[in-house]
Amino acid sequence: MNRQEATEQYQLALKAGQRFQKECVLHGKSPYPQVLGDILNETMYTDVVDLGLLQIPTEQIVGTKEKGRTSAFAANFMPLLPAESEFGIKWISLCMAHLSSEGIRDPIECYEYLGKFYVQEGNKRVSVMKSYDAPLIPAHVIRVIPTYSQDPAIQVYFEFMQFYQLSGLYQVTFDELGSYAKLQAALGYEPDHVWTDGERQRFLSGFTYLKEAYTKLGGEATGVSVSDALKVWLRVYPFEDLKKLTGSEIQKRLQILWGDIKLQGTPTPIAVSTTANEKSENRGILNRLFSGVRFGHLNVAFLHEKGPLDSAWANSHDLGCQYVAKKLKGKISVRSYIISEYGGADETMDRAVADGAQVIFGTTPTLMMACRKAAVKYPKVRILNCSVSMPYTGIRSYYSRVYEGKFITGAIAGALATNDHIGYVANYPILGVPASINAFALGAQLTNPRAKIQLHWSCTPGTALDLFTRKGISVISGLDTPNPDQLEHKWGIYQVKEDGSLQTLASPVSHWGKFYEKMLRSILNGSWDHLDVDGTEKAVNYWWGMDAGVIDVRLGENLPQGVVQLADFLRKGIVEGTIAPFARPVRSQDGVLRNDGSKWFSTDDILYMQWLCDNVEGSIPAFDEILPMSQPVVRLLGIYRDRIPPEKGETLL
């Protein structure tokens, strides 16, 4: 490269610097590189570590160690001084060296803090390299270790330092706790596996291809980093595909995932629909009339992890399937599939689509990933999964507000318990379950202010009935009755009689068929795209309760008339919205006043509840206390799922 060419490169860089400077001023940002000395004080770090000579990503160089001549650069390190200045002349000479056989031989010297680099020596070298979009630059790096705190950014950085010890990578950056460990697992590595040079190079090769495709699609405009885009990719596609596919093929797949990628940058990525919206149905009819969209008939598939004879949960959904088949006879054709009969969840999805399914319901949370993959593979098929709080745009999830029924059964238990102690069997520490426990406890307190709830988890060792009867507890809330057609002992709340026999008192019941009917009618009449969510780009989660008919309470035959009237009164109030289980003084086990009685809890307050009321005796089990057979559900829906160490090969990023 001759001086004329280097001067032309400087002029291009100068224009880029001036343009970036104006944009920064326009948006109220500093137009110059950050200064580490202005960011740090002595209380903010505990140590410095010499990392030696590294190849660092130029895009992560954001500033200088000291102020110096930072005004010579825009914030993107492009020059701001004239080409004929001393600064410009030196820059041009470095540019000539960069593209000559001599090259820029000396590494820069810099400090790294929270994953960003601040130059101590070599600012102009950085400017030249950035002007050519060079991905890496040799640097002698000193890491500044921050003082540990509860600040999420600090906690994520400490996770990064552990990941760096294993991978030696600076190119991957996350903002969410647990992401580095999940990436390690998703790539098939053990938690303590140290990457070889070959593994590092293979990863960087695929990551670079993803970054190039993502940049061409305008990924930067989404505000979502390429690292977070990789997380979305790995939920559906294997990492190895990044090295097998062409750039255009990677772009096509990214476009399919674009909705989920955009959600990564959304503070509230999930739109929760808490009730059926009749107005949206009317709007759907108008849409059908004016758009010509008509659905005369639908082929509907229900995918069960286990058969109805082997699982009460599957049986409740199978009854819902039978219900909707009768209600919409002639408008839908229904077929059920049991995963074990077709070799696996992905294969069953393929089979259902091959059989002509236009709508698929995956009836257990553990089918979520198979539903997600199928939604990408078959974008014209409407797919729903029975789970809650899932941030995926290609599918919709649904669950029921069991806590409403639990509030009523708690009130019944409090009224009928012969002493102040009531047993409660919870299934898993997953989203919504603490709300059910607490609603039951508050219901019991409504009819017996002295009521204490003895808590046992079915996902931990021990037999609840034996534990409770030894303590003299005669009224017990067992697991929920799985369907509205039968009441069996040990389901719902039951009473242990003096002769040891069990008498069923009442139970929450799930009417899944009513939910299925509502969803399928919305597809048939054209209101699916508008039902409750008004065209939002967020992930759609349905969380319906008594007002939608999805949850109810079935009462035993021998309940006292006054208790029946109380249950009917509470049911009517919840349906009409005049009674809410948590709209009362509520204090948790740690003594915190959660509600003074003057407010109603929001949907998020209830769904993501992680505490127990002060009249509950027991605690939420840690993940390692849960039986192995129960851990997969907790990994997927657990109230602390983001804090569970990932397993090798796990793709729940």
The biggest beta sheet, please? 7 strands, parallel
Q: How many strands appear in the DSSP assignment?
A: 22
**Tell me, what's the shape?**
elongated
* Mean pLDDT across residues: 90
- Which spans have pLDDT < 50 for at least 5 consecutive residues? 278-293
The main sheet orders its strands as: 7-18-12-11-10-8-9
What structural class do helix, strand and pairing data support? alpha/beta
Proportion of helical residues: 25-40%
The separation of the N and C termini measures 46 Å
Strand content: 15-25%
Structure at a glance:
The protein is of the alpha/beta class. It contains 22 helices and 22 strands.
Overview of this protein structure:
- The protein is 39% helix and 19% strand.
- The chain is α/β, with parallel strands linked by helices and 653 residues long.
- It has a 7-stranded parallel beta sheet, sandwiched between helices. A 7-stranded mixed beta sheet has the order 19-17-16-15-13-14-22, with helices on both faces. A 6-stranded mixed beta sheet has the order 1-3-5-4-6-2.
